[in-house]
Input
Amino acid sequence: MRPSKRLERIPPYAFAQLERRIAEKRAAGVDVISLGIGDPDRPTPPLVVEAMQEAVTEPETHRYPTNRGRADFRAAVCDFYERRFDVALDPEREVIPAIGAKEAIFNLNLAFLDPGDYALAADPGYPVYTGGPWLVGAEPVLMALQPEHGFVPDLGAIDEDVARRAKLMFLNYPNNPTGAVVPEGFFERVVEFARAYEILVVHDNAYSEIVYDGYRAPSFLATPGAKEVGIEVFSLSKGYNMTGWRCAVVLGNAEAVATYWQLKTNIDSGLFEAVQLAGVAALSPDADSEVASMNELYRRRRDLVCEALQGIGVQVRPPHGTIYVWAPVPEGFDSSAAYCEHVLEQAAVVLSPGAIYGPAGEGWFRISLTTPDERLLEAVQRLGALAA
Ligand SMILES: *Cc1c(COP(=O)(O)O)cnc(C)c1O
Output
């Protein structure tokens, strides 16, 4: 058997390795608490489950969906964007369902990059921003997110030649893994930069609904001129506890949406219509209270984790969005991997080493808030005992 060379270019998916390590420890009888993976522990809201139950009994949902998606799903997405972000979208030309943001982000690489092209990728960032370009023979160019710049890339530091060769730029706010929210004026600078270098901006909006302290996350598409240079990938996975369902949308620039559609018609056969109908329920105002109570739960957990970390001398800033706490590795460890290894061995707690999200993540670790309160409390107590 001879796998393709392109597969050799990418490192093994970090979480796949982590899952194997956890399984080994648990098999050996160790009580491992995983704060590694960002996968909501709470069930999908009942109104979404009920909409799905009803939808699967309708034979019309059993056939091939179209890649354009159901009209009622596209209309629900547009209503949501209007209500939530004050963004007007044409449901005929500017919206298309995706089988999760991961599918969309990968396939956008295939749709827009030729071998040798560059894609600008936030570092640290979601692994597909680098794995996607690699798999299609293009080159990811990392844009470091530094704390002193509020975890946004310094666009002025991007080399002219690199900018000219770049065709895509991947951004994500509220940000995984740093928990940062977008600073005032940054999206405006992105639009200007993308215009100057003819770059398609892909804003990965996986966390806009998970916010705290009264913060409201904007859509990139609400920025003046954004629709001329960009698209947004909105995922229902995290905000609606629907990671297993695979439901997302690609919205914005009509030409880019059409290109993505053209590619998809050759690759998959669209999003299960019953899932689209469940998505309609999730995006309706009826789900707002569910989102609010989930945010209240995560806020409590965030405070619990941040206070515990501060108690053991880790300087951490509570995030205004996402399900992650991003914290600096305590002194005395050579790398984020060494610290996380130490914590796993000594406390049986799984943390994500920052370096797995890119070189700029070195020196940091990530805690996911998607673990039930008692277990999260137990985990931070173990960390405290380890530090003492
Ligand atoms: C979880 C996550 C995704 C994947 O979302 P799906 O819709 O479940 O594929 C994409 N981007 C970021 C930043 C994420 O954290």
The two ends are 52 Å apart (CA to CA). Residues 288-311 form the longest helix (24 residues). Residues 5-43+288-387 form a domain with the Aspartate Aminotransferase, domain 1 fold (CATH 3.90.1150.10). The chain has two domains: 5-43+288-387, 46-286.
